[in-house]
Amino acid sequence: MSELTPRQQTILGLVIREYVGSTFPISSKMLLEQYDLGVSSATVRNEMARLEELGYLTHPHTSAGRVPTDMGYRFFVERLLGDVALPPAEHRMIVHQFHQARLDLTQWMRLAATTLTRTSRNASLVTAPQTTQARFKHIELISTQGKLVLLIVVLQGGNVQQQMLTLAEPLTQAELSQSADLLNQVCSGLSAAEVRTRRSGLATFEAEICGLVLEMMERSDERITSEVYRDGLTEMLRQPEFLEGGVSPGALRLLEERSFLDDFLSETLSPKVGGVQVIIGGEGRWEDLSSCSMVLARYGVPGFATGALGVLGPTRMPYGRAISAVRLVAELMSDLVHEMYSE
Predict the structure, then answer these.
(1) Is 38 left (phi over 0), alpha (psi -120 to 50) or beta?
(2) Looking at the predicted structure, is the pLDDT value of residue 222 above 60?
(3) pLDDT digits (tens, 9 = 90+) for 75-126
């Protein structure tokens, strides 16, 4: 991107803010009527023409006004937007809603998607946190009838698996609980590979139970998909760009095709938790997304489980509001995952 003078930066920022709010091409006359720029109309016209030459603005068909290009939006997001926060009352309301919700991943994902759509007035999506490796939390051995025992395995993150066992000889509930307590002490917080190394030092019965636990953990590690919650397609379709020209095929694919979403996220989303990324107009890599922008963040606990969330809409997006909403919801979702994975 070319360096811009302070006056060019001011004019570019005003054009983008006005265009995002009005959806109409912005003329020099309109800027002069709305803002005291301290320069002549000829100067503003010349600066807007120069911004067009540099690739930051363009003008549709024969209109006298100009609209931002993808490069203009990029400059705005990276250099002009600054740190934008949601209004305090709205921020408090969102935090309150999450704190009022039960400590339940499904409920929080739905709330996250709904909150992002309501705040940005565009489509949203939230993927469930995906564990990098299954980690042991605790087991229970429950005597049911005679030699039948129910094995309950709880992995970090709330994944619960059960299996009925038939013992060679019946054991009392006290004996079963003692074995379960031992395994809980030995295996707490370990991955499948780490549990395997501890198995050799166990007595026969505990080693057999440990082998079953290993099988469950390894099956969990093989699962590579996670749920996706979506919201706001109707809101996005109400945007003027999509009412007039129809929603881009890429936007629908992101919301409907899991494989396309996975490919998109794997190529764009940073593995680090805590940052917000803005993808504008497909960034030249996704032609189907040329009319769209996406604000993304990764949430969760690094090294344990992370997911993605974001807002999808037209390039004429209120970026400050979308970025603030995505950042806040990602922080709240990270708090949930941290609580889920804490001992």
Answers:
(1) left
(2) no
(3) 999 999 988 899 999 999 999 999 888 778 889 999 999 999 999 999 999 9
DSSP 62: T
To the question of domain 136-222 being in CATH 2.60.40.1220, the answer is no
**Would you say 31 and 37 are in contact if contact means Cβ atoms under 8 Å apart?**
yes
282: left (phi over 0), alpha (psi -120 to 50) or beta: left
Cα 208 to Cα 143, 147, 295, distances in angstroms: 16, 15, 48
Token reading at 95: 């935090």
CB-based contacts of 112, cutoff 8 Å, min separation 6: 124, 126, 229, 309, 329, 332, 333
Q: Which two tokens stand for residue 202?
A: 């166990």
β-bridge pairing 130-131 and 136-145: unpaired
Residues 6+ apart with CB under 8 A from 97: 111, 115
Nearest to 69 by CA among 251, 290, 309, 296: 290
What is the distance of C-alpha 159 from the center of its chain? 21
Q: What is the CATH number of domain 6-80?
A: 1.10.10.10
CA distance to 226, 254, 309, per residue, from 259 (Å):
12, 9, 16
Q: Structure pTM?
A: 0.75
The CATH fold assigned to 88-129+226-341 is: Beta-Lactamase (3.30.450)
Cα separation, 37 vs 183, whole angstroms: 73
pLDDT score recorded for residue 134:
76
Q: Taking CA 311 as the corner, what is the angle to CA 305 and CA 312, rounded to the nearest 5 degrees?
A: 125
